[in-house]
Amino acid sequence: MNQKVIYLDYNATTPVDQRVLNEMIPYFTEKYGNASSIQHPYGWDAEEAVDISREKVARLIGAKAHEIVFTSGATEAINLALFGLVDKNPFKNHIITCETEHKAMLGACKELKLRGISVTYLKVDNSGNINLKELESEITDQTLLVSIMHANNEIGVIHPIEKMAKITHQCGAFFMTDFTQSVGKIPFDVRKVDLAVMSAHKIYGPKGIGALYMKRSANVEIASKVFRRGHERGYLSGTLNVPGIVGFGKACELCQDEMNVDSDRLGKLRDALESELNQLEGTQINSSDKRLPHMTNISFYDIDGSKLLPSLRGLAVSQGSACTSSTLEPSHVLKAVGLSDDLAFSSLRIGLGRFTTEDEIEQTAQIIKNAVARLRIQPS
After folding, report:
1. Model confidence over 252-264: pLDDT tens digits?
2. How far apart are CA 74 and CA 180, in angstroms?
3. Residues 109, 252, 255, 323: which is the catalytic one?
4. Catalytic: 98?
5. Sign of the Cα pseudo-torsion (194, 159, 172, 90, in order)
6. Residue in 2, 6, 23 with CA at minimum distance from that of residue 204
7. Nearest partner of 108 among 86, 91, 126, 140, judged by Cα
8. What is the reported pTM?
């Protein structure tokens, strides 16, 4: 990159915080032992680091350390939970999720349907909200699991997970949430649910490490999907990623200390950006007021959406989830909330983060306003 690019795609991934990196480095170069090597000090140091980090992850979300299983990320955690739960409970064959879930969840459900599992996809309204009465009406005596993300990764809407979990539990099913986008951004007590998944690279930690939470008191049992079950309570195989786990723990510790200050600052910057962009005619915010403080999703009427991102030189933003950015299809989330294909393609997902500055927001507003003005289709 020859010029400074303003990074506003924090929903896709975050840079590793320097404090996180500093914590990790010794476990690459000095304390490089295998956490399973319990015969010597190198292994003891690694094992202790994993235990301490597990405590830090658990502390952030209100869990107990023994309820945390480290994975390679949220996607692996989703697959471990879904397929493991189904295999362990063969007498129930129904799962409920939502049409606006992340593709990691939707892809796993698609595979489960091929294996004979019935999947119900709840609809959302124009703000991305789920009707709780619909959830209640869809649960049957065959429902094994309801899985709803805490906050949507494209429009930021926050679902009432506690209410949903209560409905689910009253009907005798398990409740899981993907809180990859919300963890460390807003407070969340994971004890309200039975399973939850998260990933370190969304909270200024390294890529390639995540976690599955399983509530011990809910008697959640899942089947292992590997042949050599030597790690993480027998659910996974392979040497633990000690530097990644250490970084994950430090990232959680920083979020716990700085969450409130970061959320307040980013909410104000987000609101300032929206205020500037709303000065353009034909601008629409694609979410309700109850959403994550660090992000916005904005549509612009009467422009050629295919030219929008190429026109934003100097900005790193997206038109949807990073997992679908290479496709030519409009965002399934924006389609679900009622946007046309044209308007979905004329939308931007903007994610602010810990290192976003007020000056960058001012520059961003001007860049987008200029680009939209140039692209605006003039009436004939």
Report:
1. 999 999 999 999 9
2. 7
3. 323
4. no
5. negative
6. 23
7. 86
8. 0.93
